[in-house]
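Weekly modeling sync, notes
Attendees: AB, CL, MP (scribe)

Item 1: holo prediction request
CL wants a bound-state model with S-adenosylmethionine before deciding which constructs to order. AB pointed out that an apo prediction alone won't tell us much about the pocket. Agreed to run with the ligand included and paste results into these notes for async review.

Input as submitted:
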Amino acid sequence: MNSEHLSKRLHTVVSFIPKGSVVADIGSDHAYLPCYAVNKGIAKSAIAGEVSDGPFTSAQKQVKSEGLEKAISVRKGDGLEVLAYPGEATCITIAGMGGTLISSILEKGKAKLEGVETLVLQPNIQANNIREWLLQNEWQLTQEEILEEDGKIYEVLVAKRGNPEEPYSAAREMDILFGPFLMKQRNDVFRKKWTHERKHWLQIIEQLNKSGNQESLQKKEQLERYIQYAEEVLR
Ligand code: SAM
């Protein structure tokens, strides 16, 4: 992968960036995504945010090697703190992390989200945490995609300002877990993911059965519910 040929995963993330956006890519590593988005004329300009020294230096080098220093500002910092003021970016991308970390970055940086129009989020796991966060923070989940690359399955979530309740049915817990849009499509990748998760949950339940404390009991009840849901969506 490089900034000319993105992975299928990052390509899917880019495909949801509205044309003409000022993009802030948080956790940008090599800055492949902002370089690609600017080179293709999708982003007007971009900010590449990185918290770690190594990836920050890689991002700086990449931007320099492509002569994009005027269009892409590489900044070191934690999450959205790299944005100078609310609304500096119109679209935020956060990819390649767990859903819990992505949600905590959004939560911590709430004040900087003012003026942001689009969030494109690609959790490697626990997309449900992001859906919960969006729902509680007045962001409307508008699109979702699930894809497989090199044997791994990824979800991409897009959110805009709007009615956070809009995509959800009365079966809220199920929608949050599987994704309201993905659940409607139920494509082969979706089926593969949840067939695997169901098996994994059954294994965890076996372990929990051996422990028997109150916490395990609650966890077991939740997993049993999830297994029922999975059997329903896979039917
Ligand atoms: N976004 C790229 C992608 O999807 O290919 C890189 C993903 S890499 C697995 C995650 C990157 O996020 C790492 O470079 C890490 O240093 C960075 N990161 C983790 N937490 C961060 C935070 N709170 N703020 C900024 N960057 C963060």
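Recorded for review: Residues 10, 26-29, 49-52, 55, 78-79, 95-97, 105 surround S-adenosylmethionine (CB under 6 Å).
Action items: CL to compare against the apo run; MP to circulate these notes.
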